[in-house]
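Problem 3 from the worked examples.
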Amino acid sequence: MPRSWINRYDPGVPAASDYPQWTVPDLLRRSASRFPDSPALHFYGTTLSYRELNALTTRFALALRKLGVQTGERVALMLPNIPQAVIAYYGAMKAGAVVVPMNPLYVEREIQTQLADSGSETIVALDLLYPRIRVVRERAGLPKRIIVTSLRDFLPTAKKLLYPLQARWAKRWIVVEKIAPVYGFLELLDPVPVATEAETSSLPSVEPTSLAQIQYTGGTTGIPKGVMLTHRNVVVSALQGRRWCSNFREGQEVFLGAVPLFHCYGLSTCQNLAVATGSRIVLLPRFQADEVMTAIQKHGISIMSGVPMMFSMMTECAKARRHDLRSIRVCLCGASPLSADVQDAFERLSGVTISEGYGLTEAGPTTHCNPIQGPHPHGSMGVPFPDTDARIVDVETGHRDVSIGEAGELVVRGPQVMQGYWNNEAETRAVLRDGWLYTGDIVRRDEDGFFFFMDRKKDVIKPWGETVYPREVEEILSQHPAVQEAVVVGTPDHHYGEAVKAYVVPISGTSVTEQDLIDHCRTSLARFKVPTVIEFRSELPRTIIGKVLRRALRDGAERPVTDAQPTR
């Protein structure tokens, strides 16, 4: 199909490429060969070179094999952004295992569900999380092996000595008895010397088409599903990101590692892209706006991946103007739409243009991005990546291509698209049709080839049989001077099918009523789009990367709306 959008690519960005037949660990091996002494990871004063990182991943792979981990076996990783997360990721794959990244915020029920669904018999986790995992093991017999590590394991000597005191003061000090089936991360590495060529060659060989990781969807609108990504999917995604940045300086860039690496977005646009190019990653296990901006200035961060919540918190930080952020050359935003106000504020603060992109876990994750250097319209999610096709089809049948400017469901295809859902053929058939991935997202396209996100298909509200896109209503509500944030959902209504309900976080110190906001909406929206109920909140439920949990809002609606009457 014609890819007219390639005319919007920056100079030097290829429309199509041949991708090497590499596995994910090959990205690390190649950089260790090309840039052996270059820094790979920086963590609070500790620096690991690419030579050291590659050696540690091999030692971890050998340790896993010694524990009995077999080729194709699933290994769960429940870790924040620390060196152990990177070591375990590439090390597990070198051992022939399939990586299952898990959110460290999961509670026992979520841990048990994901371990059972993926069949993970081994988990690598932070010691602070061990009590939850122990409960799951006692309850369900999973996992068979627990490998624990501490934040202090890769700290410099002085900070390592201080850590127990600080942890005890903060009541976060946990002592884990390391008796099988519980093992210490460092203890597993210590007995393993620098791997010989013979030992390295004893590790299993996997094909690019082999399964590399099972990445669970965020679950903001439903039950998480395990997305199957092959080594080729992951490698292609990293190389597409490299080719999108035509002014990239291999072996010299410094990445900000603040986006969670257990999330597909962080793994792709930060970890794998950085490792593939011999770049340095400055790891931060938690996001604190002042700490992040200090790190940008101190380390000369040149590549930043972020989510809207991060940019918002940085611009609102009281100390924002004290930091020099001009080292940033490439700034990417994903995970959810970025408001124009936040974008403008951060660009004024940093002097760099944010290139907003779009993707989903099922696409490994990126399919669209705005040019890094060239102009793009405000609010655009960009144009399709190299080697990626995109269509917009009618929502009703999913077969008819809609006209330019008309809203419809986005469908994509490309070498980064998943193989399907783990142990879920029905859901796989529903979204993978004739080689196309049906995203469930409502978008439109302009005459220049730029795509614009409108809403999730599942989030569309149908009062009176009319169509309401929540984001449109949210944008109008956000224009009110007393509104900090607004989220709109549909709530069941036995008379009218659905009613429009808004959750609003007001700006501190302002005064606004429900009727004020309804009147405000009536000036800019058709009557059937105007919220019938507005509930004020001090904050909204979110995922760890800042996505609003719409499902939680819909499920937890406290106020009945059965008598709501949207006016036609």
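Problem 4, a separate protein:
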Amino acid sequence: MTMKRNKGNWDLPLLHTDHPRPVTRRQFLSQGFLSGAAYTVGGVAPFLNPRNAHADLSQDLNLLRAPGECNITDGAGKIPFICFDLAGGANIANSNVLVGQEGGQSDFLNTSGYEKMGLPGDMVPGLVDAQGNDFANFDLGLGFHFDSAFRRGIMSKVSAATAANINGAVIPARSDNDTGNNPHNPMMGIALAGAKGSILGNAGTENSDSGGNSTQPPMLFNPEFRPTKVDRPSDVVNLVDTGDLVGILSKEDATKVMESIYRLSDEKVASVESLVDRDVDIDKAVRCGYLKAAHIADRFGGVAIDPGDDLDIVADDGTGIFLPDEFSQQSRDGSEFRKTASIMKLVMNGFAGAGCIEMGGYDYHGGARAEGEVKDFRAGQCMGACLEYAAKLQMPLMLYVFSDGSLSSNGAIDTSDAGRNKGMWTSDNSSTAGSFFLVYNPPRLGGPPVLNGASLDDQLRHQQLGYMSPDGSVARAATPMANNVSQLVNAVVLNYMALHDQVNNGAFSAIYQNLGLSHGLGTDLDRYVAFESIVSGTVPAL
């Protein structure tokens, strides 16, 4: 099961001598045998921000959208949430996001600790490169290694103004290597926290219970929140089909036609005896189906749903996040860009409450460092695209990144251009694992998130929730999350709700109490909250 890597194409599947032959979907994903192919489907409607749409339904029908009636909503108004599931065990700590000792990110490890995480002695944080750049960089609030591929990718897509309104936190935490069985995915917890879109609750790029590679924590699982698979622009378009009527008539006239169909149907249902049990429920389902069709015509008629038609996402004059050729290229880059654009379009415009973007092939140990650098840079570009889109829409965003386990280096250096003179990834290593999240907050809501804590030292400890030993291993006893993936998810949900000012009021604890469970984070929840709140309950409208 060995193969010679094609250095011209790092996206070929990975075959490791120390791994069994892949047999499950998740194993295929982690080794890069599967990817989310995506193709752009064009449209002609001009872009309109659906968050600014107003209901034109007749007053009596608009009242029937209420939760006690047909429960047709325009979303819950929560902060958009997007997570990146890097399948296979990607590096996150130190070659990408800085993780230090107990004092925080700037409480640096020893040289051997950094070497284990792919950084040679002349590239460790605290030193500067030949151009005078400190290897510990805080341009995004959260500390990254200056030459981090994640950071370089993010910065290639975000403007300086966007970067200035970002901050983040890192959570050093162990998880099993090379498996999709880690209960890493937080989206059902985010749904329980109130996130809901106008079309669907959650969206994910994989047809799984989590929408990605890793699983949901069993205690939070609810089939009602199972993500809808979306991995290409055409999937976004097909979620909202207003039919040919909107193309023939104006949106207003089409809505009136659909309302008339509802009223005729309602009269017919009222006059028919179905002669079956649960007659009321059947009548309601029929009536609400027609009402939903009218609502879809009203809300989405004339709106460009296709991400490829959104000039904030794709524009040939350089004002979009992607250039047309970049977005439409038939390559792994193009596929991942279209997949990312599809999820961020749904989530950032309020069509979905939360989204998961799975990226495969991150089990990149056993070969050149160049492979990891190429894939990490691509992931960073996709993260940056989400953050920049949030800035363009003047909406906040919480972006969470995780992977199943991690890896380590034995100190051997990849001297190739793409290898950047860094340590080669030689083996799986769960002790170097961690996750991180970035929060963008637009100037209209106060700008960059403020770290929790009364003093600078306290704030630094809130930016790094846990710590590593000097030799670069996660300190298992530092936090409840350090050695328990389910509690890591709970900490992410906690921080999401804290951004809404919904922790001190008991709302976070109530989620678990209502399930008859414990969140496992203890009574001092503030200890694990990175930021002060940025909204109160919901996001104010533009």
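Solution to problem 4. The CA atoms of residues 253 and 412 lie 68 Å apart. Residues 34-242+302-528 form one domain.
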